[in-house]
Design brief:
This protein is α/β, with parallel strands linked by helices and 284 residues long. 43% of the residues lie in helices and 17% in strands. The protein has 2 domains: 3-94, Orthogonal Bundle (Arc Repressor Mutant, subunit A), CATH 1.10.10.10; 98-275, 3-Layer(aba) Sandwich (Rossmann fold), CATH 3.40.50.1360. It has 13 helices and 12 strands.
């Protein structure tokens, strides 16, 4: 489902749904942030509903489960519809969706940096999968602002892992703040592997958080190459804080279709688009 229609669909349930679904829809509309940020168990306790009922509610809107539903709900609010403020999707929800697509993107990205000795890696769910794709890579010096990425790389054993420093964003398990640009001044990396909250062919890459936009631009300036990793779910309306245009990337690796209008628009904007296809056997 297009997240732009989700709020209207929720409102229709108030008059057309079952009693239980009407109650869930009313709670989502009245306190969307609690639904987006709450775990399944917390939401079920608050709504006096079972987890299977909550999952069936999300599936009624065309989603596989609660994670996809919460992400689209957050994105719908990020458009600032009807006075609702933006709520960033939870990182654990991002981690659970489009896994096969992110694996294909990460594998292609890992091949592109196979000869690099010094890497910068962004935070986010795709960055974590990219880090796992380096498990058989020769040892590299890798700096990251992500605590999760750092842990994955340290577990592999062969890499020299550095953290950027900065203030911890507990929900995202990442670092942010002005200490990051300061720490980067002493380094120069071969490639920065980055993601984005949102990618729009016209306006470029953007994010929910102002600090993240500043940090990402600093990371981009510390590497000779910038490779963007974005599955097709990231393409949509721009968020408030601009990061960069697509022509600032050396390549954009994505699972968009060759025939997609977005692919055509990206190439017209100057992006070097590299298309991948997820393995059919990969986990969804």
């Amino acid at each position: 489902m297009d997240e732009h229609d989700l709020i209207a669909q929720l409102e229709s349930v108030l008059s057309e749904g079952t009693r239980k679904f009407r109650g869930i829809a009313a709670s989502v509309l009245n306190d969307p942030e609690a639904f987006i940020r709450g775990s399944n168990s917390e939401t079920c306790e608050r709504l006096d509903a079972s987890e299977p009922t909550l999952i069936r509610f999300c599936q009624a809107f065309g989603y596989r489960g609660t994670s996809e539903f919460r992400i689209d709900l957050a994105l719908a609010h990020a458009r600032d519809r009807r006075g609702l403020s933006a709520v960033e999707p939870l990182h654990q929800d991002r981690r659970l969706v489009n896994v096969a697509q992110k694996m294909a993107i990460a594998d292609a990205a890992a091949q592109r940096v196979s000869s690099d000795r010094h890497l910068l890696i962004d935070s986010g769910s795709t960055a974590e999968i990219f880090a796992r794709a380096l498990c058989n890579s020769p040892g590299k010096t890798i700096m990251t602002a992500s605590l999760m990425v750092a842990q994955i790389l340290m577990d592999q054993g062969q890499h020299d892992v550095l953290l950027t420093g900065g203030r911890i964003r507990s929900e995202a398990r990442s670092l942010t703040g002005q200490l990051i640009p300061q720490s980067l001044s002493e380094f120069h990396f071969d490639t920065f592997v980055m993601g984005a909250d949102c990618a729009d062919p016209g306006s470029g890459l953007s994010t929910f958080d102002e600090d993240e936009a500043v940090v990402t631009r600093a990371l981009m300036g510390s590497a000779r190459r910038v490779n963007g990793l974005m599955d097709q779910s990231k393409f949509g309306e721009a968020r408030l804080h601009k990061v960069c245009k697509f022509d600032a990337l050396d390549c954009l690796i994505t699972d968009l279709a060759e025939t997609s209008q977005i692919t055509s628009e990206l190439r017209q904007s100057g992006a070097n688009v590299v298309l991948v296809k997820p393995a059919l056997s990969a986990s969804q």
